[in-house]
Design brief:
There is one protein chain. This protein is mainly α. It has one domain. It is built from nine helices and two strands, in the order αααααααββαα. A hairpin with a 2-residue loop joins strand 1 and strand 2. Helix 1 packs across helix 8. The protein is elongated. It starts with 7 loop residues before the first helix and ends with a helix. The N terminus is likely disordered.
Length: about 240
């Protein structure tokens, strides 16, 4: 059945509301033990950190008495909590720099392309509080910049994966809700005090189902702009009606 022009704004608003509801349902998965949808993308951060600390694992206590929890446990907690990305990167840099020691300096130097002997000297002096020589301060600065670039790449990829995963999951939920809702309201047949919906074979893979399906597909992209778009469409309809008169 064709939708009358004056119902177009309300239709867009309803589709947008479906999108918002789908986002809310997906967001509710964060109550899960591993953070649900918010866990998406963290693998990129984990990969970046493990380039420097290959033995660091989540849910595992560290052998370093100064760091009772693994770096990845701390970063994962910040990630699923939704801490601002710049703050997360700053914390990650600080935690990794705390792990700089004579033992880890060689691997850190290899990954960040810094002279390993100089970085070992830097690590030793940082641990005992000695002043750095100019070449050591320069090596530490280069190491810090390389570390920031490495983490920035990991966090940017992680953020992109999280946003895309959220959209995909919300789209799936929206389509399911739209199709089931379309079946619930299609071709009502009165019977006594209750109403029965159309049989499954008269709905699924027919016109009404495909209309609901495409409405579900539109729900997620329309959700952020549905209110403004609906207002604009309603205003356009009023202008058209005024001109027609």
């Amino acid at each position: 059945m064709d939708i009358p022009p004056f119902d177009l704004g309300n239709t867009v608003a309803a589709i947008g509301a479906l999108g918002l509801a789908s986002y809310a349902l997906v967001d509710a998965t964060k109550i899960g033990r591993q953070g649900g949808v918010s866990n998406s993308g963290f693998a990129f951060i984990e990969r970046a950190v493990q380039q420097l600390l290959p033995d660091d694992k989540r849910n595992k206590s560290s052998a370093d008495s100064n760091m009772p929890r693994s770096v990845l446990d701390i970063l994962h907690a910040n990630w699923i909590a939704g801490m601002p990305c710049p703050d997360q990167k700053a914390i990650a840099r600080s935690l990794l720099k705390l792990r700089l020691s004579v033992k880890t300096a060689e691997r850190f130097a290899t990954i960040t392309h810094v002279d390993k002997d100089v970085l070992k000297s830097v690590a030793a002096k940082m641990n005992n509080g000695s002043d750095l020589e100019p070449n050591e301060a320069n090596a530490l600065g280069r190491f810090d910049l390389a570390l920031a670039a490495l983490l920035d790449e990991g966090y940017q990829r992680a953020d992109q994966r999280y946003r895309n995963a959220t959209r995909v999951y919300a789209s799936v939920v929206a389509v399911v809700l739209a199709v089931l809702g379309g079946w619930a309201v299609s071709h009502p047949v009165s019977g006594g005090t209750a109403a029965m919906t159309a049989p499954i074979e008269e709905y699924f893979f027919h016109k009404q189902m495909w209309i609901a399906f495409f409405c579900g597909l539109l729900a997620t992209p329309l959700a952020p702009i549905s209110k403004d778009l609906a207002s604009a469409l309603q205003a356009g309809v009023k202008v058209a009606q005024t001109i027609k008169r």
